User: Fold this.
Amino acid sequence: MSSSEPPLEFRNTVATAMLDLGRSEKRPFKAYVPLPNGPITDTLLTLKVAAAVVCNFRHTVTTFETVNANSAVNAAMNLYPFSAQLQNHQHEKTLPSAGLFWPGAVDRYNTTHTYWQDFFLTPSLVKPPLFWALPDCPLRLPQGLRDNLIDPLRETNLKEDRWFVCMDTGRRDHSDRPVGYDDHSYLKLCNFILDELGGQVVKTGYPGEIVWPSRPGFVDLSTGGRPLLLHALATSHARAFIGPGALGGTLAHILSIPSARTDTLDLFAGRPSDLVLTTNAVDREGTVRNQDALLDEGYTATEHFIHSLDSGNLTSVHPNSFDQLLSATQQILSETTDIAAWRPAQKPFIRDTGSFSWPPHSDLKPRFVDLSREAG
Assistant:
């Protein structure tokens, strides 16, 4: 080569294919996510964790894989805010692990090929502490679906110029709980919100122990087989979520709606906008323990309460009283005074950092309801 000729451009295409992730449509960041076969809440939480990973990249493709997906799973996929494909198998299938990461078995320069992946989000990684250690990337309804569902929500006579909270007291997916909760106290709380606070209430999730009577300002989506996405749409416009129900609470979490998780036995809520009100446990000395006293003694999951009841360290566990529920309601409403009507729809969220840290780090610091405040 003569000195007058320009130097040849050097491009390490293998390095580009393997390292230059998510910066262009030709090289998207590719995540592979098997979906669990359990309750729909597990699928929703998996979608949330996947979104929290891929939101760090401008161009992404997420491949979800499941077996015998039902209508709820197909509906939930609409909430995922990034480019995705669902591989639905009719029988158990061995995962193609040989090609998930290293593209040696296929054309390594075909950088959009989803046979090989950049990140494998295994079900073992989708655990509660991880939900709050990763960025809070809200799931959201696409505009087209929102337009289709908004009329059915309006037809419930929910007034758009007034705020509302979502509540869920459904027992489904809570069969392992050593104690229930008092649905009558939640009905009393619903009436207090309607009569004394000027708000509205939408009951989401699964049906509770009793039927709440119909009245102006109260909408019950928990009965009548209302579609999952209508529950999600209502939750996305709520001022806050209040209650112990698994489905309603999960929808609030994945949509990043402030929540007061009441009658809880799992102390994993760690977002700044979340509040925790634990159940009331009685130890062998007859002392009632709740809130941070339970956390200090290591009670962070339902299994810990069950073990302590079996061993005699705890003698009983009791649901929240109406006054405790009222304290939780007053606190979450005092922190959401900017919402005077329906909450505006979420905007798309992309961090676009081009990378993320794994494993993420976060101290477990739930924010407890202040029971020293006088309710009323």
Summary: The CA atoms of residues 7 and 186 lie 75 Å apart. The chain has eleven helices and 13 strands. The longest strand covers residues 60-67.
